[in-house]
Design goal:
It contains 17 helices and 12 strands. The protein is of the alpha/beta class. It has 3 domains: 80 residues, Glutamate Dehydrogenase, Chain A, domain 3 (Orthogonal Bundle), CATH 1.10.285; 132 residues, Leucine Dehydrogenase, chain A, domain 1 (Rossmann fold, 3-Layer(aba) Sandwich), CATH 3.40.50.10860; 154 residues, Rossmann fold (3-Layer(aba) Sandwich), CATH 3.40.50. The two termini are 27 Å apart. Bound molecules: NADPH dihydro-nicotinamide-adenine-dinucleotide phosphate. The site of NADPH dihydro-nicotinamide-adenine-dinucleotide phosphate (NDP) has 23 residues, from helix 9.
Length: 448
């Protein structure tokens, strides 16, 4: 790093968080985005803004004991990282997956700070979850786990404090179980304390579709403003087949694209006629089955084991929507060779830093996760607004607001990429736009 200030912050993080590779990766990306502007902001060093920015306000780690269906006691580890609340209460999802650890939680919470800063809504950043694996668990086991998790989590959350939502392994069912226990323990119907709720008790229309729709609205802007084209007639590959992947695929199809392939953690299906989304929804949304079965149900399609090979299918637009670091250098090379013009990060941090650089150097427009998938948290904020106003907007009203927010985010990010003297580098633009706003709020609030 050219700037001695950025270098010294990097050295501190390198020493302190060496054993937290995912968090490390996020911090390096941010510092790199500030290179061209840091000299114009001596106040950052004076007020220790970056040193404070890369250290979470707190990380809570806790025991989650629960009883399985055989009567055996199981113990998992729970997390809530409250990273930064300079512009609003902490906000970020809960992830239940065996891979969850403190590094992933810190990395995702840090990314939430920057993502929420882009939404134009007053939200800070946090993240939480557990190494609990919901796969193969009965509904009773899920409920007992969620209740135990909520007993500790409730001490740390609230509509003005910290507002969790869903993420991998946490849908409106789990949010419902957590909210039920939260309400019982706090004796309050504080609907704005959790988002992603079922419609029957304060959920918002469009929340289910929001992240996927938002990814397409953002990508539409990229295609129009930077590539003078649209989704119409384009071949698209989407990894994953969960909430984000499904609604990205549905909206992309509505905008005229053909979805060639989708995946789950076992492998991917390729359908040269365009993926039949009703079959995917039956398999993955309405029942919890494996994507492999698609190839048995749809003639002409094939299943291949190994989820990473999905990126060897040539496409115009690539939208990874499964998990972190699923695209490394070999996958990026395949994407470039396949003639891709734009890659939108639907999942959080789906590309390694090396893969992102390679794609950008080859002229692929890379839309960063914190901008492209901000539709989910933006609609969560719209859910909180409706809860506070005690009213519900129609699907069209929420969708229209979401569309407007995603267009604004694109403009903000693109403008910031120009300020950073890297026009069109949306990764740098997103980091800078958000950091400028949050650092300003931090300076105004003094050294806290
Ligand atoms: P889901 O749990 O609904 O779906 C996740 C999908 O990714 C599934 O198809 C799953 O396959 C696959 N997957 C999970 N882990 C792996 C892995 N290690 N390797 C390969 N495939 C894997 O999650 P979401 O769709 O909600 O989230 C997907 C991504 O989007 C995550 O990165 C999440 O953080 C991010 N995101 C989600 C938001 C939301 O609103 N839901 C908002 C913003 C970001 P399988 O079924 O086999 O497990």
């Amino acid at each position: 790093m050219r700037s001695p200030y950025l270098q010294s912050v990097f050295n501190t993080i390198d020493k302190r968080s060496h054993e937290q590779p995912e968090f490390h990766q996020s911090v390096i990306e941010l510092l790199g985005s500030l290179e061209n502007v840091v000299d114009q902001h001596p106040e950052w060093e004076h007020y220790g803004v970056l040193e404070r920015f890369v250290e979470p306000d707190r990380s809570v780690v806790f025991r989650v004991p629960w009883v399985d269906d055989k009567g055996k006691v199981q113990v998992n580890r729970g997390y809530r990282v409250q990273f930064n609340n300079a512009i609003g209460p902490y906000k970020g999802g809960l992830r239940f997956h065996p891979s969850v650890n403190l590094s992933i939680m810190k990395c995702l919470a840090f990314e939430m700070v920057l993502k929420n800063g882009l939404t134009t809504l007053p939200l800070g950043g946090g993240k939480g979850g557990s190494n609990f694996d919901p796969k193969g668990k009965s509904e009773d086991e899920i409920m007992r786990f969620c209740h135990s998790f909520a007993i500790e989590l409730q001490r740390h959350i609230g509509g003005h404090i910290d507002i969790p939502a869903g993420d991998i392994g946490v849908s409106s069912r789990e949010i419902g179980f957590i909210y039920g226990m939260f309400k019982r323990l706090t004796r309050e119907f504080d609907a704005a304390a959790l988002t992603g709720k079922h419609l029957s008790y304060g959920g918002s229309l469009v929340r289910t579709e929001a992240t996927g729709y938002g990814i397409c609205y953002f990508t539409e802007e990229v295609l129009r403003e930077m590539k003078k084209t649209s989704f119409d007639g384009k071949n698209v590959v989407i990894s994953g087949s969960g909430n984000v992947a499904i609604y990205t695929a549905l909206k992309a199809q509505e905008l005229g694209a053909k979805i060639l392939a989708m995946s789950d953690s076992n492998g991917f299906v390729y359908d040269p006629n365009g993926i039949n989304m009703e079959v995917i929804r039956d398999l993955k949304e309405r029942s919890r089955r494996r994507i492999k079965e698609y190839a048995d149900l749809v003639p002409g399609s094939t299943f291949t084991e190994g989820f990473r090979d999905i990126w060897s299918i040539p496409c115009d637009i690539a939208i990874p929507c499964a998990t972190q670091n699923e695209i490394d250098v070999p996958q990026a090379q395949k994407i470039i060779e396949g003639g891709c013009i734009a890659l939108s990060q639907g999942a959080n941090m789906p590309c390694t830093l090396a893969a992102s650089h390679l794609l950008q150097d080859a002229g692929v427009v890379v839309s960063p996760d914190k901008a492209a998938n901000a539709g989910g948290v933006s609609t969560s904020a719209l859910e909180m607004t409706q809860n506070s106003m005690r009213l519900s907007w129609t699907f069209e009203e929420v969708d229209q607001r979401l569309h407007g927010i995603m267009k604004n985010i694109f403009k903000e990010v693109y403008d910031a990429s120009e300020i950073a003297k890297q026009p069109g580098n949306l990764i740098t633009g997103a980091n800078l736009a958000s950091f400028l706003k949050i650092s300003d709020a931090m300076i105004h609030q003094g050294i806290v």
